[in-house]
Each structure stands twice: as C-alpha cells, then as structure tokens.
Amino acid sequence: MCGRFAMYSNAYFLENLPDLENPEITEQAASRYNAAPGQEILTAVSGKKGIRAGFMKWGLVPFWAKEPSIGYKMINARAETADEKPSFKNLLGKRRCLIPVNGFYEWKKENSCKQPYYIFPKKGGLFFFAGLWDRWEQDGTTLHTCTILTTEANQVMSPVHHRMPVILNQEGQDIWLDRDQTDKSSFKKLLVPSPSESMDLYPVSQYVNKAGNEGPECIERMEF
Hints:
CATH superfamily: SOS response associated peptidase-like
CATH architecture: Alpha-Beta Complex
Shape: globular
CATH class: Alpha Beta
Keywords: Covalent protein-DNA linkage, DNA damage, DNA-binding, Hydrolase, Lyase, Protease
Strand content: 35-45%
Distance between the termini: 26 Å
Helix content: 10-25%
Radius of gyration: 17 Å
Largest sheet: 7 strands, mixed
Structural class: mainly beta
InterPro entries: SRAP (IPR003738), SRAP-like (IPR036590)
Mean pLDDT: 93
CATH topology: hypothetical protein yedk fold
GO molecular function, one term: single-stranded DNA binding
Order of helices and strands: EHEEEEHEEEEEEHHE
Family: Belongs to the SOS response-associated peptidase family.
Protein name: Abasic site processing protein
Number of strands: 12
C-alpha cells in the first residue's frame, strides 16, 4: 500500500510536464515531506487542451457516497481488481490522474517495532503514481478526491512490504492521461511493478510516523 509520501520539488514537476496548461498552480503547492491521507495533494489530469494540474483530497469519495468520510478507507486501490470494484471500474475509463512524488514511505516490522523506509527514484527526479479521481457533490459542497493504485512489490520493495504504488514511466504517463484512450485493457498493462533498478531505499527516523511532523528531517537517512 501507500500511506505517506514526500513531494517538495515543483521544478521537477514542471520539467516532466512542459506542456502543462496551468503551470502557475505549482506556486500554491507547499513543500511536503510527510503528505498523509485526508490532505490536499498535487495531481495532474487530462485537460481541455493538454495536461492540467490541480489539488485533490487524498482518499477517494465516489460520487454516489452518502458521506465523504468513506474516503479514509479508499486511499489505495488494488490494480488487479480496479476494473471490477464499483468504486473504481468506471473511473478507470474516464477519470485517471497522475500523482507526483519525490519518494514515499513504507514500514517494515523489525524486532518489536515498525521501521519506516524512504523509497525514492534512483536517478533522481520524481515518481509519477497512477491514480483515479472522482467528483462528489452534496448540499452545495464539491469535493475532488483521488486514490493511488497499488500492485505487487518488486525486488527492492518486497523485503519491506508486499505491495507498492503503480509507478508510470514517461510512455505510461502519456497513455494514462490520454483522454481519447478508453480501452481498459490497455491501462491494465501499465498497472505492474516498476523495474527494481529504477528505485532505492533507506531507513529513516520514526519521526515520520506522526502525520503532523513535517520537514526535511523526515527523509534523512538513519544510521544504525
């Protein structure tokens, strides 16, 4: 799964999406080293003329939900069954998004505690997670929310956790955000573990365990 991540390099975001319709929105994106479910996060979707950036609440609230609190149960969606579940299957064909991150966290049970690890692109830059989004409206309130698709762990991740986010390369990003592409089978081919050689990880302090803790210290390597 994926329950926390860091996103603090808006310059990399603009570099990866040079044709962004509204690049000025990144000026509103604060550096985050410990983004958590329920918070507003930076995303990219297919716009009218190209790719458009915006903020969505992390934790999907389907348009048919009675209460928005359901979002806390939908921060992730299993890629293997996304085309079968009522909350996700229609979104796969029409409401896909990218979620840019500098890296993400996962916890491994070691001895009597859970040790957090920071996973990041081995060559620098950003990961782009495959996500789904929806719009919820009720009593004059509108929410745009999203979820992160997950798949089986690759060789780097598997010693820490058996699941990982779906990470798309440049070709995958283009297909994922192509609004004219509606064939779900073509999307399913993208929802696989990313190559192990594309990422690295190291242990970090349990300071990151608390969602309210922020700052560069969250991603500092912990020396044993």
